[in-house]
Amino acid sequence: MTTTNLGDLTVSPIGFGCMALSHVYGGTTDDAARDTLGAAVDAGITFLDTSDVYGEPREGSTGPAGTNEEMLAPFLKDRRDEVQLATKFGITAPREGTDTSSKRTDGRPEYARSACDASLARLGVDTIDLYYHHRPDPDVPIEETVGAMAELVAAGKIRHIGLSEVTSEELHRAHAVHPIAALQSEWSLWSRDVEDRVVPACAELGVGFVPYSPLGRGFLTGTLTKEQVAGDFRGGTTRMGESWDANQKIVDIVAEVARRHDATNAQVALAWLLQRADQMGVSAVPIPGSRKAERALENLGAVDLLLDADDMTQLDAIRTLVEGTRNIVDNPTWISSGRE
Ligand SMILES: NC(=O)c1ccc[n+]([C@@H]2O[C@H](COP(=O)([O-])OP(=O)(O)OC[C@H]3O[C@@H](n4cnc5c(N)ncnc54)[C@H](OP(=O)(O)O)[C@@H]3O)[C@@H](O)[C@H]2O)c1
């Protein structure tokens, strides 16, 4: 199995997004989730991505749910040495006493320290391989947040620092405080705004890129139905709600390329990402998530799929056809392009 470097962290060429193992797109049982993970790791998918905010919150809980991390703990007890473990902090429940009651980010150094200790305890591990700040806090300079994360590296609690949904300017400021191993943001055939500034900044600084929702939250695979997404939050987004029908032409293009290669849509979407990242000079590791072991293995097959120049041109046209925004909350600053 080949490997990819995110900064100085060596990981599998495709990772595994653990969010979809919790309730967000339908969910599954913890035992079934761990079985899927076991099959993925057996096959060589060793880079696991979670967050303290993933999972169903317990009744009455006020902080990040933590239940996706807890689900992982028994798995890590047996297989910690075989995986590279990434988690995140910084998305919170609404914070009292802040200027807006809808504020959902916290980048204060004391919060970074307590969130890290809480994640280590929930995961049952001594160290986190890659610790991300999940969203910049508009009230805390990113230098202060990353300064606190650098102290966590020095203390041996985390090995590498990552950032999610930061702008190129925020990345430069953070990287001046401590090397950033990876930037995680949405990047896929239908979410390409990061190519304007963020991906070039990663290429310039030698920061790895971790594309999240690389399958368009499942849409690009062509296996979802309108009824299925109406049952979860995806049906409330413009792309998969009111623009569902209009966006089917995107799936048709992916399917046409897939047919030519006797591949699946998911493999085409991931192979496109790997090759686009290569063209842009950035080291990238997509983290698709699935509840099904056979799909995780299918996704790994993208590593061996070589798209030609005609395929890349045909797929490139998708960017002009997309209807609706990639932002899932009604706040433009929630994603990096809304602050650029
Ligand atoms: N940093 C951030 O703010 C952020 C935001 C979102 C996500 N993430 C991370 O990125 C990871 C992936 O993102 P995501 O789960 O939103 O989207 P995704 O990976 O683009 O899509 C996941 C969906 O695709 C389906 N799927 C996966 N492989 C498939 C295949 N081969 N064929 C058909 N369907 C397939 C899954 O359904 P089944 O389970 O039914 O197979 C699931 O519903 C998350 O787990 C999380 O770790 C980070």
Q: Can you walk me through this structure?
A:
It is a single chain. This protein is α/β, with parallel strands linked by helices and 340 residues long. The chain has a domain at 4-218 and 273-292: NADP-dependent oxidoreductase domain (TIM Barrel, Alpha-Beta Barrel), CATH 3.20.20. It contains 11 helices and 9 strands. It has helices at 30-43, 67-79, 109-123, 142-154, 168-177, 198-205, 226-230, 248-261, 265-279, 293-300, 309-316, and strands spanning 4-6, 9-11, 16-17, 47-49, 84-89, 128-133, 158-164, 182-186, 208-212. The strands form 2 sheets. The protein has a 7-stranded parallel sheet with strand order 3-4-5-6-7-8-9. Strand 7, helix 5 and strand 8 form a beta-alpha-beta unit. The radius of gyration is 19 Å and the shape is globular.
Characteristics:
single chain, 340 residues, alpha/beta, TIM Barrel, seven-stranded parallel beta sheet, two-stranded antiparallel ribbon, 11 helices, binds NADP nicotinamide-adenine-dinucleotide phosphate, NAD(P)_OxRdtase_dom_sf
Q: Within the largest sheet, what's the order of strands?
A: 3-4-5-6-7-8-9
Strand-and-helix sequence, N→C? EEEHEHEHEHEHEHEHHHHH
CATH class of one domain equals Alpha Beta
The 3D shape can be described as globular
Topology diagram in text:
Layout: E1 4-6, E2 9-11, E3 16-17, H1 30-43, E4 47-49, H2 67-79, E5 84-89, H3 109-123, E6 128-133, H4 142-154, E7 158-164, H5 168-177, E8 182-186, H6 198-205, E9 208-212, H7 226-230, H8 248-261, H9 265-279, H10 293-300, H11 309-316
Parallel strand pairs: 3-4, 4-5, 5-6, 6-7, 7-8, 8-9
Antiparallel strand pairs: 1-2
Bound molecules: NADP nicotinamide-adenine-dinucleotide phosphate.
